[in-house]
Structures are given as C-alpha cells and as structure tokens.
Specification:
Layout lengths: L4 E5 L2 E9 L7 E7 L7 E6 L6 H20 L35
Antiparallel strand pairs: 1-2, 2-3, 3-4
Length: about 110
C-alpha cells in the first residue's frame, strides 16, 4: 500500500490518505480532501487496491471529484412523475363521443 500524498490539479490541492476501517477484517479506503474546502469535508470514493500507484489514484480521485461537481451542477431529477418508475406509460385517453342534441318533436 502506498502512503498518502498531496497533488495539485486545475488549481485545486488534493490531500489523499489511505486509511483502514475498524471493521473485521479491516479494509483500506482512499480518503481525500481539498485544501480550499473550509468545512473540512472528506471523501472516501474507493477502496485501496494492491495495484494502486500514485498516478492511478490521482486520476481516479480527480475523475470522481469532477463527476461529483457535474452531478451537483445538473438540475435535480424530479422525484414524482405520476407513475411508478418502470411502469408502462398510460394509454392515450380517447374522449367519449359527444351525443348530438336531439330535437323534441313536441317543442316544434
């Protein structure tokens, strides 16, 4: 497992550290934070792998963060669409035929 490191991408400073969970068996996760984040937000986007290199971890973190920003900037998906997701669309409602007015023979 490689040690933590920091890097700059597009004027953003990422600080990455691998950390073990307290579960049994312990799992390693890559955590990262941004130097410009005033709230101290940290993200754990993926598990540590034996094949991790500094370069591929950096690429995965930047891709994850850019995708997250794009999803946040996108308009929200409407929650209610009027039917269950995956349900067939309702059949077109055909209007009922309109009855022609009848003339009453006694009125004439």
């Amino acid at each position: 497992m490689i040690d933590g490191f920091a890097f700059v991408d597009a004027d953003r400073t990422f600080t990455c550290t691998p950390e073990l969970t307290r579960t049994s068996p312990p799992e390693g996760w890559w955590w990262f934070s941004l130097g410009s984040d005033v709230q101290g937000q940290r993200y754990a986007p993926f598990r540590v792998a034996a094949s991790d290199t500094r370069r591929n971890v950096q690429q995965r973190i930047v891709a994850y963060y850019d995708d997250m920003l794009a999803r946040r900037a996108a308009p929200p998906t409407p929650y209610y669409r009027g039917r269950r997701p995956g349900a067939p669309a309702p059949a077109d409602a055909t209007p009922a035929p309109v009855a022609e007015p009848t003339q009453d023979a006694s009125a004439a």
